[in-house]
Amino acid sequence: MSIPTLALNNGRALPAIGFGTYNLRGEPGAAAVASAITTGYRLLDTALNYENEGAVGDGIRASGVDREDIIVTSKLPGRFHGHKETFVGFEESRALLGLDYVDLYLIHWPLPKVGKYLDTWRAMIELRDQGLVRSIGVSNFTIEQLTRLADETGVVPAVNQVELHPRFPQAELRAFHTEHGIVTESWSPLGNRSEITAEPVITRIAADHGVTATQAVLRWHVQLGAIPIPKSANPARQRENIDLFSFELDDAEVSAISALESGRLWGGDPDTHEEF
Ligand code: NAP
Fold it and tell me: CB of 17 within 8 A of CB of 27?
Protein backbone atom coordinates (compact mmCIF):
# COMPACT_ATOMS: atom_id res chain seq x y z
CA MET A 1 0.00 0.00 0.00
CA SER A 2 1.39 3.37 -0.95
CA ILE A 3 0.60 6.15 1.51
CA PRO A 4 1.22 9.77 0.46
CA THR A 5 3.29 12.01 2.70
CA LEU A 6 3.06 15.60 3.90
CA ALA A 7 6.22 17.71 4.09
CA LEU A 8 7.19 19.25 7.43
CA ASN A 9 8.85 22.66 7.78
CA ASN A 10 12.18 21.02 8.70
CA GLY A 11 12.71 18.91 5.57
CA ARG A 12 11.17 15.76 7.05
CA ALA A 13 7.76 14.28 6.20
CA LEU A 14 4.85 12.46 7.79
CA PRO A 15 2.53 9.86 6.26
CA ALA A 16 -0.99 11.10 5.49
CA ILE A 17 -2.46 8.80 8.17
CA GLY A 18 -1.24 7.75 11.61
CA PHE A 19 -2.28 5.44 14.42
CA GLY A 20 -3.67 6.61 17.78
CA THR A 21 -2.91 4.54 20.88
CA TYR A 22 -4.97 6.08 23.68
CA ASN A 23 -6.23 3.24 25.94
CA LEU A 24 -4.02 0.62 24.27
CA ARG A 25 -2.07 -0.71 27.21
CA GLY A 26 -0.15 -3.77 28.38
CA GLU A 27 0.25 -6.88 26.25
CA PRO A 28 -2.97 -6.38 24.26
CA GLY A 29 -1.82 -2.80 23.60
CA ALA A 30 1.58 -3.94 22.36
CA ALA A 31 -0.13 -6.53 20.13
CA ALA A 32 -2.44 -3.85 18.71
CA VAL A 33 0.53 -1.58 17.96
CA ALA A 34 2.46 -4.43 16.31
CA SER A 35 -0.60 -5.29 14.24
CA ALA A 36 -1.02 -1.65 13.17
CA ILE A 37 2.61 -1.52 12.03
CA THR A 38 2.38 -4.75 10.03
CA THR A 39 -0.86 -3.43 8.51
CA GLY A 40 1.10 -0.46 7.16
CA TYR A 41 0.90 2.37 9.71
CA ARG A 42 4.25 4.11 10.14
CA LEU A 43 3.20 7.12 12.26
CA LEU A 44 2.35 6.27 15.88
CA ASP A 45 0.85 8.61 18.45
CA THR A 46 1.39 8.19 22.18
CA ALA A 47 1.96 10.43 25.22
CA LEU A 48 3.47 10.10 28.70
CA ASN A 49 -0.06 10.57 30.07
CA TYR A 50 -1.44 7.60 28.11
CA GLU A 51 0.66 5.36 30.39
CA ASN A 52 1.34 3.07 27.43
CA GLU A 53 4.73 4.09 26.07
CA GLY A 54 6.15 0.74 27.24
CA ALA A 55 3.48 -1.07 25.24
CA VAL A 56 4.16 1.13 22.19
CA GLY A 57 7.90 0.39 22.39
CA ASP A 58 7.19 -3.34 22.78
CA GLY A 59 4.80 -3.24 19.82
CA ILE A 60 7.47 -1.61 17.65
CA ARG A 61 10.03 -4.26 18.58
CA ALA A 62 7.52 -7.08 18.06
CA SER A 63 6.51 -5.80 14.61
CA GLY A 64 9.78 -6.77 12.94
CA VAL A 65 9.79 -3.44 11.07
CA ASP A 66 12.98 -1.36 11.34
CA ARG A 67 12.74 1.27 14.03
CA GLU A 68 14.17 3.79 11.52
CA ASP A 69 11.08 3.29 9.34
CA ILE A 70 8.66 4.16 12.15
CA ILE A 71 7.77 7.66 13.27
CA VAL A 72 7.07 7.74 16.99
CA THR A 73 5.22 10.70 18.43
CA SER A 74 5.07 11.40 22.16
CA LYS A 75 3.89 14.37 24.23
CA LEU A 76 5.09 16.29 27.25
CA PRO A 77 2.40 16.63 29.94
CA GLY A 78 1.61 19.72 32.01
CA ARG A 79 3.46 18.59 35.13
CA PHE A 80 6.73 18.88 33.20
CA HIS A 81 6.21 22.37 31.80
CA GLY A 82 9.26 24.56 32.38
CA HIS A 83 12.77 24.52 30.96
CA LYS A 84 14.54 21.98 33.23
CA GLU A 85 11.38 19.95 33.72
CA THR A 86 11.01 19.37 29.98
CA PHE A 87 14.26 17.37 29.88
CA VAL A 88 13.09 15.24 32.83
CA GLY A 89 9.71 14.53 31.22
CA PHE A 90 11.35 13.72 27.91
CA GLU A 91 13.81 11.27 29.50
CA GLU A 92 10.90 9.51 31.20
CA SER A 93 9.18 9.00 27.83
CA ARG A 94 12.39 7.91 26.13
CA ALA A 95 13.11 5.34 28.86
CA LEU A 96 9.53 3.99 28.82
CA LEU A 97 9.58 3.70 25.02
CA GLY A 98 13.01 2.04 25.17
CA LEU A 99 14.15 4.12 22.18
CA ASP A 100 17.26 6.24 21.57
CA TYR A 101 15.31 9.11 20.03
CA VAL A 102 11.74 10.27 19.54
CA ASP A 103 10.72 11.29 16.03
CA LEU A 104 8.09 13.87 16.88
CA TYR A 105 7.76 15.41 20.33
CA LEU A 106 4.81 17.65 21.18
CA ILE A 107 3.78 19.90 24.06
CA HIS A 108 0.52 18.13 24.98
CA TRP A 109 -1.49 21.20 26.10
CA PRO A 110 -0.52 24.90 26.29
CA LEU A 111 -1.81 25.52 29.85
CA PRO A 112 -1.80 29.31 29.47
CA LYS A 113 -2.67 29.86 33.14
CA VAL A 114 0.49 28.00 34.16
CA GLY A 115 2.32 30.33 31.78
CA LYS A 116 5.37 28.17 31.00
CA TYR A 117 4.79 26.97 27.45
CA LEU A 118 7.37 29.37 26.04
CA ASP A 119 10.15 28.11 28.36
CA THR A 120 9.02 24.60 27.54
CA TRP A 121 9.27 25.33 23.81
CA ARG A 122 12.83 26.65 24.23
CA ALA A 123 13.76 23.33 25.87
CA MET A 124 12.06 21.43 23.04
CA ILE A 125 14.28 23.33 20.58
CA GLU A 126 17.34 22.20 22.59
CA LEU A 127 16.13 18.58 22.54
CA ARG A 128 15.89 18.84 18.77
CA ASP A 129 19.31 20.45 18.46
CA GLN A 130 20.80 17.66 20.61
CA GLY A 131 19.39 15.07 18.18
CA LEU A 132 17.20 13.45 20.85
CA VAL A 133 14.07 14.51 18.98
CA ARG A 134 13.82 14.74 15.18
CA SER A 135 10.87 17.12 14.90
CA ILE A 136 9.14 19.29 17.48
CA GLY A 137 5.59 20.48 17.58
CA VAL A 138 2.63 21.20 19.81
CA SER A 139 -0.87 19.96 20.49
CA ASN A 140 -4.00 21.94 21.28
CA PHE A 141 -2.38 25.33 20.59
CA THR A 142 -4.43 28.33 19.43
CA ILE A 143 -3.43 30.81 16.72
CA GLU A 144 -2.40 33.29 19.42
CA GLN A 145 -0.23 30.73 21.22
CA LEU A 146 1.38 29.53 17.96
CA THR A 147 2.14 33.14 17.03
CA ARG A 148 3.79 33.74 20.39
CA LEU A 149 6.06 30.69 20.02
CA ALA A 150 7.17 31.77 16.55
CA ASP A 151 7.63 35.45 17.47
CA GLU A 152 9.62 34.76 20.64
CA THR A 153 11.85 31.93 19.39
CA GLY A 154 11.80 32.09 15.59
CA VAL A 155 10.98 28.38 15.54
CA VAL A 156 7.59 27.46 14.10
CA PRO A 157 6.18 24.12 15.33
CA ALA A 158 6.29 21.41 12.66
CA VAL A 159 2.88 20.10 13.77
CA ASN A 160 -0.15 21.17 15.77
CA GLN A 161 -2.26 18.17 16.78
CA VAL A 162 -5.80 19.31 17.60
CA GLU A 163 -9.34 18.06 18.05
CA LEU A 164 -10.67 17.77 14.49
CA HIS A 165 -13.62 15.78 13.11
CA PRO A 166 -16.80 16.59 11.16
CA ARG A 167 -18.32 18.21 14.26
CA PHE A 168 -15.28 20.47 14.61
CA PRO A 169 -13.51 21.04 11.27
CA GLN A 170 -11.29 23.88 12.59
CA ALA A 171 -11.31 25.84 9.29
CA GLU A 172 -9.72 29.01 10.69
CA LEU A 173 -6.93 27.18 12.52
CA ARG A 174 -6.21 24.99 9.47
CA ALA A 175 -5.93 28.05 7.25
CA PHE A 176 -3.43 29.57 9.72
CA HIS A 177 -1.43 26.33 9.74
CA THR A 178 -1.28 26.30 5.94
CA GLU A 179 -0.17 29.92 5.83
CA HIS A 180 2.64 29.25 8.32
CA GLY A 181 3.81 25.80 7.18
CA ILE A 182 2.45 23.89 10.18
CA VAL A 183 1.07 20.40 9.53
CA THR A 184 -2.32 19.69 11.12
CA GLU A 185 -2.93 16.39 12.86
CA SER A 186 -6.53 15.45 13.80
CA TRP A 187 -7.13 13.86 17.19
CA SER A 188 -10.38 11.93 17.77
CA PRO A 189 -10.75 11.97 13.97
CA LEU A 190 -13.81 9.72 14.26
CA GLY A 191 -15.23 11.69 17.17
CA ASN A 192 -14.28 8.81 19.50
CA ARG A 193 -17.45 6.72 19.73
CA SER A 194 -19.74 9.64 19.01
CA GLU A 195 -22.49 9.09 16.43
CA ILE A 196 -20.71 10.90 13.58
CA THR A 197 -20.43 7.90 11.28
CA ALA A 198 -24.21 7.33 11.53
CA GLU A 199 -24.94 10.76 10.02
CA PRO A 200 -27.06 10.25 6.86
CA VAL A 201 -24.86 12.67 4.90
CA ILE A 202 -21.85 10.51 5.63
CA THR A 203 -23.51 7.13 5.09
CA ARG A 204 -24.85 8.36 1.73
CA ILE A 205 -21.41 9.58 0.58
CA ALA A 206 -19.85 6.32 1.78
CA ALA A 207 -22.42 4.25 -0.13
CA ASP A 208 -21.82 6.30 -3.29
CA HIS A 209 -18.11 5.39 -3.13
CA GLY A 210 -18.60 1.80 -1.97
CA VAL A 211 -16.65 2.47 1.25
CA THR A 212 -17.58 2.50 4.95
CA ALA A 213 -18.71 5.63 6.76
CA THR A 214 -15.49 5.55 8.77
CA GLN A 215 -13.44 5.52 5.56
CA ALA A 216 -15.45 8.46 4.18
CA VAL A 217 -14.71 10.48 7.35
CA LEU A 218 -11.00 9.59 7.32
CA ARG A 219 -10.76 10.43 3.62
CA TRP A 220 -12.36 13.83 4.40
CA HIS A 221 -9.45 14.51 6.81
CA VAL A 222 -6.92 13.52 4.14
CA GLN A 223 -8.53 15.88 1.62
CA LEU A 224 -8.53 18.72 4.14
CA GLY A 225 -4.77 18.18 4.33
CA ALA A 226 -4.99 17.07 7.99
CA ILE A 227 -3.43 13.81 9.22
CA PRO A 228 -6.00 11.67 11.06
CA ILE A 229 -4.67 9.38 13.79
CA PRO A 230 -7.56 6.94 14.39
CA LYS A 231 -7.21 4.44 17.22
CA SER A 232 -8.40 0.89 16.82
CA ALA A 233 -7.57 -2.18 18.86
CA ASN A 234 -9.02 -4.38 16.11
CA PRO A 235 -6.83 -5.54 13.17
CA ALA A 236 -9.75 -5.56 10.69
CA ARG A 237 -10.71 -1.99 11.61
CA GLN A 238 -7.03 -0.97 11.48
CA ARG A 239 -6.97 -2.21 7.88
CA GLU A 240 -10.23 -0.45 7.06
CA ASN A 241 -8.94 2.83 8.50
CA ILE A 242 -5.77 2.93 6.42
CA ASP A 243 -7.44 1.90 3.13
CA LEU A 244 -8.20 5.46 2.01
CA PHE A 245 -6.12 6.02 -1.09
CA SER A 246 -8.11 4.40 -3.88
CA PHE A 247 -11.11 6.77 -3.85
CA GLU A 248 -11.61 10.52 -3.75
CA LEU A 249 -14.42 12.76 -2.48
CA ASP A 250 -15.49 15.64 -4.67
CA ASP A 251 -15.55 19.21 -3.35
CA ALA A 252 -19.30 19.11 -2.67
CA GLU A 253 -18.90 15.95 -0.58
CA VAL A 254 -16.04 17.47 1.42
CA SER A 255 -18.18 20.58 2.05
CA ALA A 256 -21.23 18.49 3.02
CA ILE A 257 -19.20 16.69 5.69
CA SER A 258 -17.69 19.97 6.94
CA ALA A 259 -21.24 21.35 7.24
CA LEU A 260 -21.89 18.91 10.12
CA GLU A 261 -19.98 21.34 12.33
CA SER A 262 -21.48 21.90 15.78
CA GLY A 263 -18.42 22.48 17.99
CA ARG A 264 -15.99 20.65 20.25
CA LEU A 265 -17.17 17.27 21.51
CA TRP A 266 -15.19 17.02 24.71
CA GLY A 267 -14.92 20.56 26.02
CA GLY A 268 -11.15 20.70 25.56
CA ASP A 269 -10.75 24.44 25.05
CA PRO A 270 -6.98 25.12 24.90
CA ASP A 271 -7.44 28.49 26.62
CA THR A 272 -8.91 26.88 29.74
CA HIS A 273 -8.35 23.11 29.71
CA GLU A 274 -5.83 21.98 32.31
CA GLU A 275 -4.33 18.53 32.62
CA PHE A 276 -1.06 17.64 34.21
P1 NAP B 1 -10.98 8.04 17.49
O2 NAP B 1 -9.76 7.51 16.86
O3 NAP B 1 -11.75 9.13 16.85
O4 NAP B 1 -12.01 6.86 17.77
C5 NAP B 1 -11.59 5.68 18.39
C6 NAP B 1 -12.83 4.80 18.62
O7 NAP B 1 -13.41 4.46 17.35
C8 NAP B 1 -12.47 3.52 19.32
O9 NAP B 1 -13.53 3.25 20.21
C10 NAP B 1 -12.45 2.50 18.20
O11 NAP B 1 -12.86 1.23 18.66
C12 NAP B 1 -13.47 3.05 17.22
N13 NAP B 1 -13.13 2.73 15.83
C14 NAP B 1 -11.95 2.89 15.21
N15 NAP B 1 -12.02 2.51 13.93
C16 NAP B 1 -13.29 2.09 13.71
C17 NAP B 1 -13.98 1.58 12.59
N18 NAP B 1 -13.36 1.43 11.42
N19 NAP B 1 -15.29 1.25 12.74
C20 NAP B 1 -15.92 1.41 13.93
N21 NAP B 1 -15.32 1.89 15.04
C22 NAP B 1 -14.01 2.23 14.93
O23 NAP B 1 -10.69 8.53 18.99
P24 NAP B 1 -9.45 8.80 19.92
O25 NAP B 1 -8.78 7.53 20.33
O26 NAP B 1 -9.94 9.73 20.97
O27 NAP B 1 -8.44 9.67 19.01
C28 NAP B 1 -7.41 9.08 18.24
C29 NAP B 1 -6.05 9.34 18.87
O30 NAP B 1 -5.81 10.74 18.99
C31 NAP B 1 -5.89 8.83 20.32
O32 NAP B 1 -5.79 7.43 20.38
C33 NAP B 1 -4.68 9.60 20.74
O34 NAP B 1 -3.51 8.97 20.21
C35 NAP B 1 -4.92 10.97 20.08
N36 NAP B 1 -5.54 11.97 20.98
C37 NAP B 1 -4.81 13.10 21.28
C38 NAP B 1 -5.33 14.07 22.10
C39 NAP B 1 -4.52 15.30 22.40
O40 NAP B 1 -4.88 16.06 23.32
N41 NAP B 1 -3.46 15.53 21.69
C42 NAP B 1 -6.62 13.93 22.65
C43 NAP B 1 -7.36 12.79 22.30
C44 NAP B 1 -6.81 11.82 21.48
P45 NAP B 1 -11.95 -0.11 18.45
O46 NAP B 1 -10.62 0.15 19.11
O47 NAP B 1 -12.74 -1.17 19.14
O48 NAP B 1 -11.84 -0.33 16.96
Answer: no
